[in-house]
Amino acid sequence: MSNPPFIQVNGLVKHFPLKAGLFSRSTEKVHAVNGVGFAIEKGQTHGLVGESGSGKTTTARLLLRVIEPDSGSFSFDGVPDVFQLAPAQLKKLRRQMQYIFQDPYASLNPKMQIRDIVTEPLRYAEGAKKLSSAQLNGIAEELLERVGLSGGDTGKYPHEFSGGQRQRISIARALSAKPSFIVCDEPVSSLDVSIQSQILNLLLDIQQATGISYLFIAHNLAVVFYLSDYVSVMYAGRIVEAGPSRVLSLRARHPYTKLLLDAMPGNRGAQREPTGDAGEPPNLIRLPAGCAFYSRCPRRGEQCAREVPALREVESSHFMACFEQG
Amino acid sequence: MAALLDVQNLSTRFNLVAHTVRAVEDVSFTLNENEILAIAGESGSGKSATILSILKLIQRPGEIDGSSRILFDGKDILRMSEPELNSLRGKSISMIFQEPSASFNPLFTVGAQIAEVLRAHLRLSKTESLCRAAEVLAQVHIPNARERARDFPFQLSGGMLQRAMIALALACGPRILLADEPTTALDPTTSMRILELLKEKTQGAGMSMIFVTHDLEILSGFAGRIMVMYAGRIFESGPACSVLEDPLHPYTKDLLAAVPRPGVFKDTGRLYSIQGRVPEAGNRPPGCAYHPRCSRATELCRTEEPALIQKNSSFVRCRLHV
């Protein structure tokens, strides 16, 4: 048997309890993530797509233990389960895993100089050597140049930069601790198309140079297909289809993936096999008993209302959760 | 036939202490009945300032140049009195915005906010207006419109709220709808349905629309004409199919090439990427504003600004086409 993958996530579950009032106990929960699993190899990109509310960001935040999962396991680079680590052990692992956020305006502290922003992971990382301010400045200059900014910008503040440049600063900050895994949570969704391609190319250059792995989250299918080796499509907290990027873009089989493909501007009106009512994602508090996509699915059957379809392999490394034979 | 809206030499600038920002420079275009005109460009290209000028919603330190004219049905909007403008805004010409949750007052129900517009413009009674509000919500395909009208904005999803905002804008049967990136904040599936809804409303209701976006791709099959703006100026305008399939200006070509397309993967090559960014409005380069980023710029582009010239059915502002 081959080596275990660099990252392996299994059975990830997170339900957020709803508080009805100060003293009342509520049994209702938001079923944000309902059993998600995937693997990422070293130097590869795993894409997560789905509409808002499908659980993409919750999944990412669970992996970095920003929030704690209800159940599930996450093995990372030989560590059998990151979820079982005590705080001290986790802190040591933190520099290996970094995060790039969607909103480059909210994710940089406006009162900090760029030098302090990009070296922050270094200064607080567990086990890091104490670095002098001259050393930190040198590192900051190097990082900025690596992401295509000027090394002379270290003394500036975030407001002096445009959205695209701020996203470069976020990337520099993520790179400072020399991580082996970066979660990119919609890093280009708020950028102009011209800037978007600059950032995507930068992410690819970095991956080629360092062999870093990405979990890349976006709702734009074209961007995810372009950047990822392997893509998982999420719906209502579950993965409904997963496969290599090329396979999924050419031979998607789940009706939900087809709906997403149909909504891509380049494809609009192209296939137009009925893809069902665009409708709305289901209520995550009271999930339907059967397939969560039931109410929107053009090919729903009787079984779909009663049972949740399991993820099964329909061709080599192409998985789908649907009763239809496709 | 005279155009429904005729914008002539529109210039809008913002007089700041340090410098003057020329947001819109000498922009002229027309909008015909039942037409969808798209204005495309990156942030800072002047597209939003253009449509805000149409409703004369530019406030100090902003200023619309005295020689500009915006003729709506032959009457110059820029020379209307405040009462005239108030009966125009939201009634004959209305507007929808990018962020629906920021456009509704969180303290009032969606239905009440639509009813308020109806009462202001159509002098309906309170009960009549609330009834009509539910009807207009139904017209934008909101299920259970009567109940949804009693919901507060936070109770609706992003897509539903965008529909409600469209209902609000269409409530008084406008002749022109100005749409400022109404689908940018939405999921692709929702965005597709909103575009379909907007198209349906222009075709059925005898309404024209100006649709502002930074995403040229979504315009295919949607807009009739596209106007590409850069640094406050029109760089290219023409029928949507020629702008999208056979663009004339290097900027338009670059914008289209920068988007990942179906069937393109990371191992097939890097995306085309436009270097640099839109120049700041207070600090534009001489000559053609795009020359520092243009791969085909010549010496002349650095010093002389090209004029907008006609080529077949399009207009283009580039020396390559002189």
Write a concise synopsis of the structure shown.
Helices cover 31% and strands 21% of the residues of chain A. With 326 residues, chain A is α/β, with parallel strands linked by helices.
Describe the structure.
The complex is a heterodimer of chains A (326) and B (322). By secondary structure, chain A is α/β, with parallel strands linked by helices. Among the domains of chain A are: 35-72 and 181-277 and 290-301, P-loop containing nucleotide triphosphate hydrolases (Rossmann fold); 109-178, no CATH class. Helices cover 31% and strands 21% of the residues of chain A. Chain A has an 8-stranded mixed β-sheet, with helices on both faces. In chain A, strands 2-1-4 form a 3-stranded antiparallel β-sheet, covered by helices on one side. In chain A, helix 3 (114-124) crosses helix 4 (133-146), helix 3 (114-124) runs parallel beside helix 5 (163-176) and helix 4 (133-146) crosses helix 5. The longest helix of chain A is centred in the middle third of the chain and has 18 residues, at 193-210. Chain B has 322 residues and is an alpha/beta fold. Chain B has 2 domains: 5-92 and 175-261 and 271-321, 3-Layer(aba) Sandwich (Rossmann fold), CATH 3.40.50.300; 103-173, no CATH class. Helix content of chain B is 31%, strand content 22%. Chain B has helices at residues 47-54, 82-88, 100-103, 110-122, 126-139, 145-148, 158-170, 188-205, 240-245, 250-257, 299-303; strands spanning 5-15, 20-31, 36-40, 62-64, 69-72, 75-76, 93-96, 176-180, 208-213, 225-230, 233-239, 309-311, 314-316. In chain B, a hairpin with a 2-residue loop joins strand 5 (69-72) and strand 6. In chain B, helix 4 packs across helix 5 (126-139) and helix 7 (158-170) runs parallel beside helix 8. The interface between A and B is large, with 42 and 38 residues.
